[in-house]
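Quick log. Single chain, no ligands specified.
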Amino acid sequence: MLCRVPIALLVWLAFSWVVSEVEAAGAFRHVDEEGVTHITDTPNDPRFRRISGFSGTASGWLKLPQAVAGSPAFSQEIRETAERHGVNPSLVEAVIRVESAFNPWAVSPKGAQGLMQLMPRTAYALGVRDSFNPRQNIEGGVRHLRYLLDRYPGNVPLALAAYNAGEGAVDYYRGIPPYTETRQYVQKVMERSGSAQPAVKAEPIQLIYRWEDADGTLTFSNVPPTTRVKDRR
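-> predicted structure:
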């Protein structure tokens, strides 16, 4: 026997099912200081607020991938890339968690993109053609982090500060810049990587000065010359 069900009833049933799925998902949303939106079902910060009401992102064609939920869904790519470049995978994972909360589509107001929040110019220099491609973004971000770890050997906090604020700021202040955002960023990454310190201190870095005398003699010193400076590294 064929049973006819009113269209309105079918629509109501479908709507009720989707809403229950959203509520079951328990999604939470938070917009950080950089304007990056983070969505997760396991909030680890009191600033997250539950997403209420109907939303197509909880199920169906707009369902958010597990990556956006803040879990290390790219753990294999992170581990393989980090090991290939000699970087601690836990450090890379911590950078991604703080930068984008594992959201591969994250874009900051300043234009940083993807998992490791690469600026377009940096991505181009690193050969990253698509910053929203997780594998390419991780590869570029880890390479950049490796470069900074080599530039400030033995000083992970300085490398992280440079990742956040730029090398110029770190060199200018000869340590972690006195920016609240940068110092909080370094502290968060250090904590999440399992290498937290009591407090992030702006320890000075050693600069080496080079200058050339009139007779062509090159001199290197950690003390800046009183006259002209040919080069500084």
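Strands lie at 28-31, 37-40, 49-50, 209-212, 218-221, 231-232.
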